[in-house]
Design a protein that fits this description.
Blueprint: E1 2-5, H1 7-15, E2 20-22, H2 26-31, E3 38-39, H3 45-58, H4 60-71, H5 75-85, E4 90-94, H6 100-111, E5 115-119, H7 122-135, E6 140-145, H8 151-160, E7 164-165, H9 168-172, H10 190-201, E8 210-213, E9 218-219, E10 222-223, H11 226-233, E11 236-241, H12 244-255, H13 260-268, H14 271-274, H15 276-287, H16 291-312, E12 318-323, H17 328-337, E13 344-346
Parallel strand pairs: 1-5, 2-3, 2-4, 4-5, 6-8, 6-11, 7-8, 11-12, 12-13
Antiparallel strand pairs: 9-10
Amino acid sequence: MLKTIEITAFLEQVKSGIPLLDARSPKEFAQGHIPGAFNLPLLNDDERHQVGTTYKQSGRDAAVYLGYQLVGHKFASYIDAAKNVAPQGKVLIYCWRGGIRSNTMGWLLSSAGLEVHVLEGGYKEFRQDCLTLFARKWPLLVLSGKTGTGKTEILQELQLLNEAVVDLEALANHRGSAFGGLGMPEQPTQEMFENKLAWALRDYLDCNRLWIENESRFIGKIRIPDVFFDQSTGADLISVDRPVEARATRILSEYGQFDKELLAEKTRGITKRMGGDRVKLSLDALSEGDLRGWVMPLLDYYDRNYEHAIRERKGKYERVISVQDDDARSIAHELIRLKPNEAIEHGGY
């Protein structure tokens, strides 16, 4: 059976776990795809180029004929691949516009006994849906704090407590600072980051509050979509305040194991912003094996940036939690119970 369905119903089926096939070329797939999709290209990159050239030079009929010439002998392999991905016999398919590629693949697989649903409007419709989600009014609560306060761990605990959480840094594969890419996988493309962000947001369409971390507009090379970022700068802010020595210890536990020359390279990379004298102070300590001496000037630099950014925010409230320990779970509990404009202290000496 072959059926075309609209975007909302299609994505609900994807979320339910039905296997999803992307019939576009490998290059298109690498640029961005619906999260969780398997790439089963009707045309590979070279074949797609040939068909596109023929379409421009000789028209649609000639291009379609060439396409069948190129892929007809591969039909059996497509069926085998689809049945391997979808052993239960049901599969979802999309291409760029929901046109020839997905419908040809859908016809083939349905003729082989699979139940096939094709996305109306294709990947282009999914991308439009992403933009619509970003522009939606979200009940954001922004978790903030200076470098080394343990915000990521707190967000993780909030999620374990069934709070709605979107971890922007995890989606971007970057911790946000000049050192944020160390030890992380390669960052996704901008398009794929946006797809992943929309995919995460889709889980929380009916939430009463949505926690995110306070971020700059860019996380590494990734730009947070403007309409969503602008919402975050106007949302209520909750800051975690932790003593500087505790923050230094936390940062060293994350970055202290990296090669010293790599740390030095990243440090030199912020000379223009941090200032030559402070960079030299940090590098001198690093060369002597004094990691704490290396990190303290960096903390001073990032703290100044943080304080400036907070002053520039449009959000109405900043609530502060003073933290003296590392118990992220109990901090998360305090955050959940926090009332508007209330400042609390957690874990006194």
